[in-house]
Write a structure and sequence with these properties.
This protein is mainly alpha-helical. Strands 1-2 form a two-stranded antiparallel sheet. A hairpin with a 4-residue loop joins β1 and β2. The longest helix is centred in the N-terminal third of the chain and has 20 residues.
Length: 64
């Protein structure tokens, strides 16, 4: 019983520090916010709206 408590505390701390890092890589991560990372991710950069998007309109703006 005396060994169980430190193990539970250690696992709790490990989970507390790793859960936020793992939560940000879900099925729909946020789009890149810089032009270089947007192009590197294979997406299109809308210079007028200063954002990254997957699809562009014929005028070159992000589709909503």
């Amino acid at each position: 019983m005396t060994k169980l408590f430190p193990i539970v505390v250690a696992l709790g701390l490990a989970f507390a520090f790793t859960a936020p890092a793992l939560a940000s890589t879900g099925p729909n991560p946020a789009p890149p916010t810089m032009q270089r990372t947007c192009v590197k991710a294979g997406m299109k950069w809308d210079a007028h709206q200063q954002r990254c998007c997957k699809d562009m309109t014929t005028k070159g703006h992000c589709m909503m």
